[in-house]
Amino acid sequence: MDFRIQTASLDALAAINADALVVVIAGEALPAGLDAGVAALAKDAIKLGDFELKAGKTLTLQRPAGLKAPRLVLVAAGKPTLKAARAALQAALAQLKGRGVAQAAVALLGFEASTESLAEQFVLASQDAFYVYRHTKPSAPAPSKLAKLSLLVDKADAAAAKAAKAGLAQGLAIGAGIELARECANRPGNHATPTFLGEQTKALGKSHGLKVEVLDKKAVEKLGMGSFLSVAQGSDEPLRFIVAQYQGAAKTQAPLVLVGKGITFDSGGISLKPGAGMDEMKFDMGGAASVLGTMRAIAEIKPKLNVVMLIAACENMPSGHAVKPGDVVTSMSGQTIENLNTDAEGRLILCDALTYAERFKPAAVVDVATLTGACVIALGGVRSGMYASDDELAGALMAAGDAALDPCWRMPLDEEYEEGLKSNFADVANVAGREGGSITAAKFLQRFASKYRWAHLDIAGTAWKGGAAKGGTGRPVGLLTHFLLSQVQGR
Ligand code: BES
Ligand code: MN
Ligand code: ZN
């Protein structure tokens, strides 16, 4: 898709030359200064009862009188917020899909959100609407005809045009990151293996100038990652520990480290999961996919920052070699762990990655994981669970989620939640009771993250959708990218 910013007089939309002119209107009244021809058509449609200035309402008019464009798509957004703009854009794109429209021009009128963020969401909503998974589905629908989308900005407002261009560029970078994350997550477990994730990272490193190292079992053994190794040992699919580095600031500047859970299939191991819906556990590398996508976005935006990405990737499978309930393993940190449930494997691979992160003397570490079913129960698919050892870091992640329309919600880390992780046979157990399951998982991780500012995102509810729209969402690439950009010094 080709995205552009087009300057125009908003009182002369009738002259816009496109297959479809899309006018998105916020608020309950037609905006002052709206093109007279468009306003007359809208007023008439409202009078006829065919259109209303209420969120979600759309109307497509063919060969609208007095307009150069052969189609006019009116879309009401309701509130003047960024979130309402995204929903309205989604409704507008649904109107354009599957039609003879090859190029469309979109005007967003009456919004209070910044032009920059509106332009970003303009790109993201469009890319989302037109993403089609194809890799293992030759019968997937042909690509949409729509090839060119222009965002119209007021010709008289030079600052708006500049902001729109910046927002468009940021949207393209984040959009590319989201697409990479979705594509990796959607590919089935027999395609998206740990080896594949390593290869994808290497390819990104080559195309975008990242330093990449992919460690195999031997190297991981040498590092002493006994906890990570214990999860991988039940599978014939070789593990990978993937390191990618983006350098945009002086080498002396402490990096931000992102850590992703890369379980490419979670059967539960010996504590086997029930069969129904088990296929969705191919998405258990959603954390890894999102940190990889974020690296792509960052490598395109090129901020003055240093960022390190770590992915621990393996399968969690039952076999004669698999780790058993009751087994005790020694993590890279030296702490021993009693495995009381082999299905609580995510924390077992993340804890060694968190210890590995220490060597970078990081400014902060954020791990991202489809960690617990309990988080899905707590927050559903709207907000990711966010835990932080530091209020400032929590505030920055919260603000980034809101700005990116990829929201999270802070969860508690009171020490009482750690009680249940006590073990008679090791320093710590990998599970506590059922209550507060997302929190006790975070408490487990916190034991391995004491050397730096740390946050954890439990994305079990937000990384993918089930049902008819089954597929990866690319979340939280938007949140993470906005967060990293907020950490640029002197910004
Ligand atoms: N990958 C799952 C978490 C998950 C479950 C994500 C459902 C999305 C939907 C994780 O490895 C897991 O199995 N967690 C267990 C932990 C339990 C054994 C303490 C869970 O949540 O049931
Ligand atoms: Mn599991
Ligand atoms: Zn898992």
Mind explaining what this structure looks like?
By secondary structure, this protein is an alpha/beta fold. The chain has 13 helices and 19 strands. The chain has an eight-stranded mixed β-sheet with strand order 7-8-10-9-13-17-14-15, sandwiched between helices. The protein has a six-stranded mixed β-sheet with strand order 1-6-5-2-4-3, with helices on both faces. Strands 11-12-16 form a three-stranded mixed β-sheet. Helix 8 links the parallel strand 9 and strand 10. The two termini are 31 Å apart. 52% of the residues are buried. The model has no long low-confidence stretch (mean pLDDT 98). Manganese (II) ion binds next to loops. Its main location: cytoplasm. This is Probable cytosol aminopeptidase. Pfam families: Peptidase_M17, Peptidase_M17_N. InterPro entries: Leucine_aapep/pepB (IPR011356), Macro_dom-like (IPR043472), Peptidase_M17_C (IPR000819), Peptidase_M17_leu_NH2_pept (IPR023042), Peptidase_M17_N (IPR008283).
Number of helices: 13
Oligomeric form of this entry?
single chain
**Rg measurement, Å:** 24 Å
Mean pLDDT: 98
Estimate the strand proportion: 15-25%
**Secondary structure: helix percent:** 25-40%
The bound ligands are: ligand BES, manganese (II) ion, zinc ion
GO molecular function, one term: aminopeptidase activity
Protein name: Probable cytosol aminopeptidase
Family: Belongs to the peptidase M17 family.
Pfam families: Peptidase_M17 (PF00883), Peptidase_M17_N (PF02789)
